[in-house]
Automatic annotation (TrEMBL):
Membrane disposition: Multi-pass membrane protein
Taxonomic source organism: Paraburkholderia phenazinium
Location of this chain's protein in the cell: Cell inner membrane
Recorded superkingdom: Bacteria
GO cellular component terms, A-Z: plasma membrane
Name this protein carries in UniProt: Protein PsiE
């Protein structure tokens, strides 16, 4: 019984190390994949000599993924706003890609989705400023 607490602590520490390593590997794979996709897009634009608005929006999506990876590496957390920004740009890109085939219903639904997501971002930002949470900080931050 004397060693049971120590054994649990060592197992817990080891599992935390494994999870942190898996997170870092996942971030590395995500970052490399995004860099390769961005490089491919740049190569395609350079070879075609043409840059479209959809290409620029796709580039922006890649930059948002990089920002998410960077934020996660810096803070150890991922704000939910980043995926929401990506969703808004993705919907806008979809509308532009389907420019000739969009129905009125698709346009209204897409615009409504973007407005709802934007309202969600505003609500999240308001909640974060009005009711800040310090409970999600990592112990090594020292609680500051």
């Amino acid at each position: 019984m004397k060693y049971e607490g120590t054994l649990r602590k060592r197992i817990k520490e080891r599992l935390e190390q494994i999870i942190e390593t898996a997170e870092l590997i996942g971030l590395l794979v995500t970052g490399i994949g995004t860099a390769l996709a961005m490089g491919h897009l740049i190569w395609t634009m350079a070879n075609s000599g043409d840059v479209t608005l959809t290409d620029l929006l796709l580039m922006f999506l890649y930059l948002e993924v990089f920002a998410m990876v960077g934020q996660y590496l810096k803070a150890g957390q991922l704000p939910v706003r980043f995926p929401l920004y990506i969703a808004m740009v993705s919907i806008a890109r979809d509308v532009i890609l389907r420019a000739g085939t969009n129905t009125n219903l698709h346009l209204v639904a897409s615009a409504g989705a973007i407005v709802l997501i934007a309202l969600g971002v505003l609500l999240i930002r308001y909640g974060q400023s009005k009711y800040p949470s310090h409970t999600n900080e990592r112990p090594e931050d020292g609680g500051h």
